[in-house]
Amino acid sequence: MKKIAVVEDNPDNRLLVRVILEPLYEVREYTDGPSVLAGLEPEKPDLLLLDISLPEMDGVAVLQRIRATPGLRDLPVIALTAHAMAGDREKYLSLGFDDYVTKPIVDERVLLGAIQRRLAGGPPAPDTVPAEPGLVVSGTLDQLRKRGGDKFTAEMIEVFLQYTARMIAQGRLAYAEGDLVGVENALHPVKSSAGNIGATRIQELAARIEDLARNREPEPIGSLLMEINDAFIAAKPQLEQIRQSLIHL
Ligand code: MN
Fold first, then answer.
1. What fold is seen in the domain 3-119?
2. Start-end ranges of CATH 1.20.120 in the chain?
3. What residues have their beta carbon closer than 5 A to ion ligand 1?
4. 80 CA from centroid of ligand 1 (Å)
């Protein structure tokens, strides 16, 4: 079985990637750049899936270190990113990534196809325009159930509920302190967690807040943070109910 290392700081995304990969590959998980850089030489994976947006050291910096290390330089590395914009593929390929997969991972065949091509030494996939947020997530929970079963879907919802509550609170606190970098860092993972389970409204609000914070525009982040908090509180009972029914099926 080929071995794949995954670096991803978002627990929902990690769980999703693990469930997709585990039937086919041996999976090693890391949550940040320094730990994967320490683990690559002893673990010798066949391929690395590398999140771009990571705390402290981002994925591009991790890749640069890998390409500068003689024993690791030829390791196939696929970028995983939620910053999906036209032209990103060229950008990441020119930085030295072997391929590029966008999050949320709605269709597992895209990820598995990229891995299989890379392990076989084939060329990266042709560019595709990323789908609109709101459009890709309908039926997301059904897809999760098909992919990972009811228990897995219930676990994804539980992780989402706990993690998102914490990140929204963290974002509001950062905003109150005038820390827009903190707002950006707190809302970025909310966007992809919400996308994974199909919580479109929360996903869209998180994306808007993240963009404003990244551009260091304080308005109207305050009211959007209240809106996303309300949207989360509104979605919570419904998600909790779905989670319960999945456990008791
Ligand atoms: Mn990340």
1. Rossmann fold (3.40.50)
2. 137-247
3. 9, 51, 53
4. 9
**DSSP helix/strand/coil, 42:** helix
What would the CATH number be for the domain defined by 137-247? 1.20.120
Percent of all residues in the chain with a pLDDT value above 70, rounded to a whole number:
91
pTM of the shown model: 0.58
Residue 29: beta bridge partners?
A: 6
Q: How far is the CA of 77 from the centre of ligand 1 (A)?
A: 16
Work out the mean pLDDT of the chain and round it to a whole number: 87
CA proximity to 30, closest of 70, 77, 69: 77
Per-residue pLDDT, 120? 84
Listed residue (211, 212, 202) closest to 164, CA to CA: 202
- Report pLDDT digits (tens) over 39-49: 999 999 999 99
